[in-house]
Amino acid sequence: MPTQPAVKLNQTQPIADVQASADQRNIAIDHVGIKDMRHPIRVADRSGEQNTVAMVSMYVALPAQFKGTHMSRFVDVLHGHQGAISVASFTDLLTELSARLDAPTGKIEITFPYFVTKRAPVSGVESMMDYQVTLLGEIDHAQRDWAVRIRVPVTSLCPCSKEISEYGAHNQRTHVTVQVRATQSIFMEELIDLVESQASAELYGLLKRPDEKFITEQAYDNPKFVEDIARDIAAIFNNDERITVYDVSVENFESIHNHSAYAHIACDKRGR
Amino acid sequence: MPTQPAVKLNQTQPIADVQASADQRNIAIDHVGIKDMRHPIRVADRSGEQNTVAMVSMYVALPAQFKGTHMSRFVDVLHGHQGAISVASFTDLLTELSARLDAPTGKIEITFPYFVTKRAPVSGVESMMDYQVTLLGEIDHAQRDWAVRIRVPVTSLCPCSKEISEYGAHNQRTHVTVQVRATQSIFMEELIDLVESQASAELYGLLKRPDEKFITEQAYDNPKFVEDIARDIAAIFNNDERITVYDVSVENFESIHNHSAYAHIACDKRGR
Amino acid sequence: MPTQPAVKLNQTQPIADVQASADQRNIAIDHVGIKDMRHPIRVADRSGEQNTVAMVSMYVALPAQFKGTHMSRFVDVLHGHQGAISVASFTDLLTELSARLDAPTGKIEITFPYFVTKRAPVSGVESMMDYQVTLLGEIDHAQRDWAVRIRVPVTSLCPCSKEISEYGAHNQRTHVTVQVRATQSIFMEELIDLVESQASAELYGLLKRPDEKFITEQAYDNPKFVEDIARDIAAIFNNDERITVYDVSVENFESIHNHSAYAHIACDKRGR
Amino acid sequence: MPTQPAVKLNQTQPIADVQASADQRNIAIDHVGIKDMRHPIRVADRSGEQNTVAMVSMYVALPAQFKGTHMSRFVDVLHGHQGAISVASFTDLLTELSARLDAPTGKIEITFPYFVTKRAPVSGVESMMDYQVTLLGEIDHAQRDWAVRIRVPVTSLCPCSKEISEYGAHNQRTHVTVQVRATQSIFMEELIDLVESQASAELYGLLKRPDEKFITEQAYDNPKFVEDIARDIAAIFNNDERITVYDVSVENFESIHNHSAYAHIACDKRGR
């Protein structure tokens, strides 16, 4: 059994602030903070507000002279946030974070499922589809920057398989992930619509038989490689003057292989 | 290039219902349905209602004579559900499912993060903790049965490490998962409180330094093996007359190993 | 700063064995041990031996009178095992575990990717496919029991989509998971072959264009619901006298939805 | 039922090469290829060769004028590789990939568990520890570049918790991930040793009680924040002239919270 300490701390003394002590290593830290905190949020977009659950990571830079950051303040900032989060407004969190941690630079990532009510293409029945959205924000001496990343599940149908086969064509679920920076805020739903319009077909929560027939034939009429989907989305982003930086990746969970086919295009239109 | 079909289907004919056709294999299916559908829900418990996001799976049994079930009806039932879900009420979904699919037996699993606002033990600051909850329900010819499973993250501190070391003791995050069937509904928060009271210490979203001191010393004063936590919870369940069947598992993400320590106790008090 | 203990333990005294001390709670533990230990293994099957990497979990029952098990002995047993692991031989580990932990009952689960070299159907080019295999063993007073579980990724093509559409049919990657107990050991490759033969088409690591044409048309010629695949495999297991207990589950990662279609059949032919 | 095509393809005609057809969109693709292919490999390092199982992704750039890449050739290159993979030699795969796909630029990522046999600090008993290693390689017009990334699980003990508490200190499993580019190849085991030496304590597969005592006290004697571990490793990399670019991230799976503490330092010593 371990020996008990002979002298107890005097509880009226202030508790030491280890994090605030000086550091001699002369090495600044790029990002320090909390990672993967689950948190309920409200999100606002084109069709109104919705409740969802986010994974939140928040970091600041730590100058070389300080030993540690104050982790509890990150949680304070998050819990103190009132109101809905939107592409337009979530960067306010960056300003709060910067002020509260007394740090000129910082970074926030908020990932959540976002639901859109869609109408089936023939029957018109409504159902919900979920999309994984990440809001990314950075602050650097009061200059705030943001990007939005959305993962949109779609159908892709293989042009090669269709061309060489007498009938049928392999198709599969595909994840298209787009990330954009823009000069003005863009609705998440606008990006989702854009991606879905460039797939072989889009997904739905609920399809009646006439809808399933429609989707099946639409996909067969519209075969696309991962390369095609990536390029067709890039072409649209190239022509959208609001968008300054983008990234498109397309991953097919191939129905004829046990691995993925993948294509990726990144572009910084500012020439960097 | 594949040859196009020469004759188009006459669109005014009804679309075939393949699923409803007869099956000759004479093999009934235990469970058929939809798995892992993401869906926003409201959950009601001791402290009121909250919004969260669930993963939902819903199945029915399929008699030997039918070729397939009608998958879209499961989604219909889920989308049609109004009102908050609670341990007391979620089995209504089973009745709807059974009626809509014309199936005497069925099963539903709903998994979601559930948030509880907790006060830090010394400073009293409030923050949220998240727990993974699964509601499990079965229906068999109008007889409904349910269970609730909750995964509660806690701290465990090793009694052996404390005993044999002059100072310190290894401790780590631990997942305690309890599943109970009871003769009356039990609040999720009651189960969470119960589990947290039997750990070396409980977790919080936000701790000030006096809280961290309290938690650190509490854990050191209260060392427990996975076996101890499992037994202490089982002992409470044994004495709770509402509970008829339970299952306790404890997994330590050992801070001195790259694998887990694990203990499991299952008990059906009805003697089965 | 915490006060240092004034007296050091005398290192010549034996270190206390906390686990072996008596327990007063009078609650036995069903399973206690180590979970998710990564370990390199050699596996033997029909086509010879191969090297792979396993996740291993090993448990024993702990009688009510002992406070804890000795976790390090589980690792000892695993590290001490020489020779390849096969469906026929892995239960030897159970005997070693039972002896070493002085426990009459115990349980082992070993999960690993297993590779099979396959020939493409037309070109004959060879490539490897990976399958997730789990060996499950239990010992009860020298009576050993085992089962093997294999997850086989295949293609499924929807019969409804084919029937109602003028051309094309949605298809997708599907996971078929079978678990069997048998009166004699069964080659993993035999189970894999059996499952693949009952899908719309099987997967390959490498396909040339003539192979892709073949697979595409084969899947279109062979449409199957999750229900069909589950039943066709169950029918074969029903007629295989070696197999006493089986479990078949089929999960389609639907290419037209963002959730899965799922079917499950379980059967204990011994009438339990 | 869909109408069958009236005319069959003449099988003696060559099968169309859709991928090689011209593309009019004038958009080059940064990376296209196969992602997450599971493959057994042999790895060579300081202590010899070992067998393990990798996840492999391989990509090339696709010029604007081609419609698609030839996915099967990536698998061919991987299957054709003979001999062990090492930090020194795996970039040969890049040369093969570039030649076979006729692509001047390409990229390979190979991730696998790597096992090191370690001796417990007091008893000297041997056991294996697993580390996740990723080899990253790029080729650009015959110029090959590589980096190695290793995730090392360790123990961290909180300096604040130790300082403010009369006894005990919270500690937990921590993932330290380092990625380095260097002017000459570096043994994986050298990087693992380096990281482990900078943690509060290192992990082992198997510890006897005297070892557990040693590790417990060592961690208590050596408290470190995520910031400390990141800085101490960065300081060593700063002084290692072989290393030109590095990245260190430290993630604590906090034993008192349900989220992680995280720190990250990146440095390009070439001044970019």
Produce the secondary structure layout.
Four copies of one chain form a homotetramer.
Chain A: E1 29-45, E2 48-62, H1 71-80, H2 92-101, E3 105-119, E4 126-140, E5 143-157, H3 159-164, E6 171-182, H4 188-197, E7 201-202, H5 209-221, H6 226-238, E8 243-252, E9 260-268
Antiparallel strand pairs in A: 1-2, 2-3, 3-4, 4-5, 5-6, 5-7, 6-8, 8-9
Helix pairs in contact in A: 1-2
Structure description:
The structure is a homotetramer of 272-residue chains. Chain A has 272 residues and is an alpha+beta fold. Chain A has six helices and nine strands. In chain A, strands 1, 2, 3, 4, 5, 6, 7, 8 and 9 form a nine-stranded antiparallel beta sheet that branches. In chain A, a hairpin with a 6-residue loop joins strand 3 and strand 4. The radius of gyration of chain A is 24 Å and the shape is elongated. The termini of chain A are far apart. Chains in contact: A-B, A-C, A-D, B-C, B-D, C-D. Chains A and D meet through strand 1, strand 2, helix 3, helix 6 and strand 9 of A and strand 1, strand 2, helix 3, helix 6 and strand 9 of D.
